[in-house]
Amino acid sequence: MKENLESISIDFVFQKNRPSFGDLFKIVGFENPNFISESDLFLNFTDLNIEQVDDYFGIRNTESVGDDVALWVFPLVSNEEVFHHEGPFDGVRLYYNILTNPIINISVLESTFKSFQKHLAVSVIYKLQKIDSFFLIKEDIDSGIKYWKGKGITPGSEDALMLRDSNE
Length: 168
Hints:
The protein has helices at about 5, 20-25, 105-120, 135-150, 160-165, and strands spanning about 5-15, 50-55, 55-60, 70-75, 80, 90-95, 120-125, 130. Strands 1, 2, 3, 4, 5, 6, 7 and 8 form an 8-stranded antiparallel beta sheet that branches. It is an alpha+beta fold. The two termini are about 10 Å apart. The protein is globular.
């Protein structure tokens, strides 16, 4: 199964000032007393409602259908997702599952993309190339939605969740 039909990943690679875990943790809206922070940069994202979810960060799905987490935010070291890592981090990855998200959640991904792009000094990498806009991502999501609907599966539906679970 082609990755872009089920999910997409977008990497925001820091051009300078790589954050520590304490800095990145502020993405949830407050400081973690167990980790030193030197920057308030990630407080710019409190309006996105990013939470600590398991060992990562994510934006919970507020819709009555679909997976529990609409969008995952993973810290990166050497282009790999890491957890239980103090940093500094090379970047963050947004992971969005086309299959398990209701279509309305595309707006969650787009607003997060635009906010990260606005507030962070980053290179945005999608499908191994630098991008400057959400356009290519939206095209791929639309293609994925069309693919799943062609198979009789509505993204975010119970059938979609069961299909994802059977592929794991």
